[in-house]
Amino acid sequence: MNFIKHLVSFFNLADRDPRLTPQHLTLYIALFRQWNLNHFKNPITIIRTETMKMAKIGSNSTYVKCINDLHRWNYIKYNPSRNPQLGSHIDMYTFDTGTPADMYTFGQCGVNVLYSSINNTNNKKQEIEQAQNFESQNFNSVDMETLEKKEKSCAKKESNPNHPPLEHVIIYFVEKNYPELEAEKFFNHFESNGWLVGGRSPMKDWKAAARNWMLNIPKYGKQPKPTRLGATHLNPNKSYDEPL
Question: Chain centroid to CA 239: how far?
């Protein structure tokens, strides 16, 4: 794969594609860099946080939109992972076939019609089948909206590392020699108020909040009720004839 021709062709396409924004371009370059590190072999495995850092994209929603746009417009093939512990897979298409940039067309509904092969495919029959599949691909807008909503939901969970699952809270309390019941009280309290400290500020460090909770356990523990003097506490030997 001639990466110089590839980039020249890509930028020629980008100049003619009014849909692309600076975020799309920086994201594509970040993916290209990772493809280069993988010796231009497909697929590449990407991690959201690393890719966003390389692309200089600070918003999860912007990242999700741009990567789905690049997939929908046939610049890349995006296979997202639903497991936050696993990376997503990307197949990069080649644009170094020597076809002039003006031979690429933008079809109806803004779908880019490309017929590029995937780099790790050496079988000519498989290349033809893949080209036919992409040519006949009909992206359903409702399905893509559902995919983007799921991606945004996943991104929101990843962007809130201070909202721990109950299991992590229990493990932390047990390590500090506190019962699981206190861990559940702590978790239920902050889960119910959206993990806000004092009901206003988002929590920055749940472990620090947990340690404060542990320190306050004795304060809010059961206190012995003061005893009241009843009839049985009267002095039976008191003489009521004497003036006070």
Answer: 81
Please count the CA atoms within 13 angstroms of the CA of 209 that sit on its side-chain side: 21
As a whole number of Å, the end-to-end CA separation of the chain is 110
Q: Model-level pTM?
A: 0.45
DSSP-based three-state secondary structure for 58: coil
What pLDDT is attached to residue 232?
A: 54
**Contact status, residue 55 vs residue 63, Cβ threshold 8 Å:** yes
* Chain-centre distance for alpha carbon 155: 2
> If you search the block for the tokens 């296979």, which residue do you land on?
79
Low-confidence ranges of the chain (pLDDT < 70): 1, 84-85, 97-162, 220-244
- The continuous run of DSSP H or E covering 113 comes out as strand 112-113
C-alpha distance from residue 206 to each of 3, 84, 163, 189, 191 (Å): 47, 20, 7, 12, 11
178 DSSP assignment: -
Q: What are phi and psi of 192, to 5 degrees?
A: -75, -25
Separation between Cα atoms, residue 110 and residue 107, nearest integer Å: 6
Question: Which distant-in-sequence residues (6+ apart) come within 8 Å of 208 by Cβ?
Answer: none
Q: Are 61 and 155 in contact (CB under 8 A)?
A: yes
Map tokens 């946080």 to a residue: 49
> In this structure, what token pair is assigned to residue 151?
């991606």
What pLDDT score does 86 carry?
75
Q: What is the pLDDT of residue 6?
A: 86
- For CA atoms 136, 141, 143, 148, the dihedral sign is positive
The strand pairing partners of 11, in sequence order, are none
